[in-house]
Amino acid sequence: MRAVALCLCPFEGGMMARRVAIVGSGQTYHSGGRTDVNAQEMITEAVVRALESAELTIDDIDGIVIGNMDHFEGINYVDTWSVPATGGTLKPVIKLTTGGTTGTTLAIGGYHLVASGFFSKLLVIGWEKNSESDTTAAITTAFDPIWDRLVFAGAIGGLAVEAQAYLARYNHKKEDAARVVVRDRKHGANNPYAHMQKEVTIKQVLSSPPLADPLHFLDMCPRTDGACAVIFADEYSAEKICDRPAWILGTSVRHNAAFSTDVNFDGLKTMESAARELFHKTGITDPLEQLDVIEMYLPYSYAGLIWIESLGLCKKGDGPRLVWDGVTDMGGKLPINPSGGPICANPIGATGLIRVAEAALQIQNRAEKRQVPDAKIALATGFGGCFWTDLVLLGAKKP
């Protein structure tokens, strides 16, 4: 058994461990149906691109963490099933899955495994082939059949409840949420990996088919096939691998409620709590001024209003003002989702990991047409389950 030595370095929460950075990432060209490849071949595409981005080979990798919404495709033991795709032969392979937050769970789990000293260079993979699953049925049957299922029939119903509560509380308009879609679709047009790369107008969003009031078809994220792979390295390897690592400054997790009936719809409470903890640990006192870019898990339009308030970017009810004023657009004070976010690509098991990968690309100045100039601090968020939240803060400066 390999001995593990922990380095005495500053670590979030007062513990002592290794500092960790992202040194490479890769993702597939996302689409509504990757009929050209099976799921394993799709995963391999992301792995190869991640290794190439860091100029590493699979032999340089110590271990692998992988996950997806494992009840979607109906594949058990994804950790062993995926070995031909990941290059995990004779390597430790760990599976993590937490519903919609799986992608950020993978990133946070990978970070802690490297920080603990168990691995020096870790490959973290998220994937989903939504075209081979009944997403709505899978989510519906995941809810408790007595307390939840009849009310929250799939993801759309629960999100519609949150949107209705927000509109009733602040008397905002549907156009405010549609402006979020317009922003992210415009950003996504600059992302060659995005599933949706066509801009839309507010009129098009509001005239698209209704789903569950107040939500329309274009208010929602698509169902996407795709994979993402991210390489985490400890402080002894990171700076040797690349000249601009994206350092993990801190993480925060809130998976509070087990039942949707426990959720409070006065803002996203898990995000409020997670943000307070993360910002306190990392010295962020004014996120609107101190953050340079946010890659946010926005599965639908109203989240782009409600959740920026929950992050503390503005007062409750002021989300629409920030969006209409262009503060969150590319070129604004704090761009949100330069990649287009989940509104433009949502391979659910990979979606949160894509947010982390895109945030890292911003820090590494590798985001090409979607690059925010001189980005030094980036926030990635995850969402899922009974309105759970994960947060990952990345920076250019070694903590």
SSE diagram, text form:
Layout lengths: L19 E8 L11 H16 L8 E5 L10 H4 L1 H4 L6 E3 L6 H14 L5 E9 L5 H8 L11 H17 L3 H15 L13 H6 L2 E3 L2 E2 L8 E10 H7 L4 E9 L14 H14 L4 H4 L2 E3 L7 H8 L8 H6 L23 H16 L13 E8 L3 E8 L4
Parallel strand pairs: 2-3, 2-4, 9-10
Antiparallel strand pairs: 1-7, 1-8, 4-7, 5-6, 8-11, 10-11
Helix pairs in contact: 4-14
Description of the molecule:
This protein has 399 residues and is α/β, with parallel strands linked by helices. The chain contains 14 helices and eleven strands. It has helices at residues 39-54, 78-81, 83-86, 102-115, 135-142, 154-170, 174-188, 202-207, 235-241, 269-282, 287-290, 303-310, 319-324, 348-363, and strands at 20-27, 63-67, 93-95, 121-129, 210-212, 215-216, 225-234, 246-254, 293-295, 377-384, 388-395. It has a nine-stranded mixed β-sheet with strand order 3-2-4-7-1-8-11-10-9. A two-stranded antiparallel sheet has the order 5-6. A hairpin with a 2-residue loop joins strand 5 (210-212) and strand 6 (215-216). The longest helix is centred in the middle third of the chain and has 17 residues, at 154-170. The protein is globular and about 55 Å long. Residues 1-14 have low confidence and may be disordered.
